[in-house]
Amino acid sequence: MLACALATTMVIAADGNLTFKSSEQETQYHRLIEEFRCPKCQNANLAGSDAPIAQDLKQKTYELVQNGRTDQEIRDFMVTRYGEFISYKPPIKPSTWLLWFTPPMLLALGLMGWLLRARQRQGVSTAPLSSEESWRLKQLLDGSSVNPQTPQQNDQEQPHGR
Amino acid sequence: MNQNRQKFFWLIPLLIFIGLAVLLWTRLGVDPKIVPQATTGKPFPTFNLPSLADGRLQTVADLPKQPFVLNVWGSWCPTCAVEHPYLMKMARQGVILVGVNYKDQPSAALAYLEKHGNPFSINLQDSKGDLGLDLGLTGAPETFIVDQHQQIRLHVIGEVDDSVWQTQLKPCLDSLKVGGGAGCQ
User: Fold this and answer.
1) Where are the domains of chain B?
2) Prediction ipTM score
3) Nearest of A82, A67, A68 to residue A36 by alpha carbon
4) Taking the model in full, what pTM does it have?
5) Could you tell me which CATH number the domain at B42-178 has?
6) What is the dihedral of CA B40, B126, B99, A38, to 10 degrees?
7) Which of residues 43-102 of B touch A (CB under 8 A)?
8) From the CA atom positions of chain B, what is the Rg in Å?
9) A47-92 pLDDT, tens per residue?
10) What is the pLDDT of residues B62-97, one digit of tens each?
11) How far apart, in whole angstroms, are the C-alpha atoms of residue B105 and residue B113?
12) Mind telling me which residue stretches traverse the membrane in this protein (chain B) (predicted)?
């Protein structure tokens, strides 16, 4: 209980004592600052960046959330100023196809290769036995019913083997 | 048939390797920093900001009616102080410079200009950083070129020096004077 209270205080303190009208708005704010990338530091999202511009953009996100804007409206606001670059969740369109579809395509290729390979192996094992092989198989099976692990017997039965 | 297929499978890793090699090779030596250029090619954002000199409110209508260079600066910004002498040189050569005094104290900004010289024809006081946001700013200093139709044509991040002037700003301004803008990229 105490830990929980402490954690909440810390979150509020980190955001400069932001207050929200509803818990939905609070979740929306946190979801968005997780999603937006800091344009200055490039490898951090807004939530994780202390760059001045990230502070500004967080503040702006907060204001827009307070004004009751939807996720899409806030995203559009950011994208018109900073481009698709701002979002860690870029929309699917021709210029981002490579980004979105390469990993699943590689996975599909891998699976296809694996399936082909497996089928190939299966093909080898179900090929009909030559007369020599069926004879040897018969010998082995007959022998195994008497004494399955006798190597001598195997040796004896190998005259036709390679 | 089976043999051919086998050969083909051996080719896949090789092809992937070649693809990756080409991809990585083309990116070698390229600046990895992505410059957000979302506002380039768009009209100058509307604003209503006091001028630093006399506090009178300025709007888009007060911007110069010919191509100009807009520089975002602050007295708190070390790189701005580094590029300042170059801005002074540009102003002496007749380049029209508009300043955006970004998130600064007016008194500190005025003292800075007093000390280092004032290359700007107007200075907008963007104390909250709203104009900066609308310009797609990532920090200071950043420099823009705005054409006679008040459209943003170029966005340069970081210090302006001789090489930036020669390779980016000057070609853009020259081509805007002719009426094209082909030199702005």
Assistant:
1) 42-178
2) 0.78
3) A82
4) 0.72
5) 3.40.30.10
6) -40
7) none
8) 22
9) 999 888 999 999 999 999 999 999 999 999 999 999 888 988 878 8
10) 999 999 999 999 999 999 999 999 999 999 999 999
11) 12
12) none
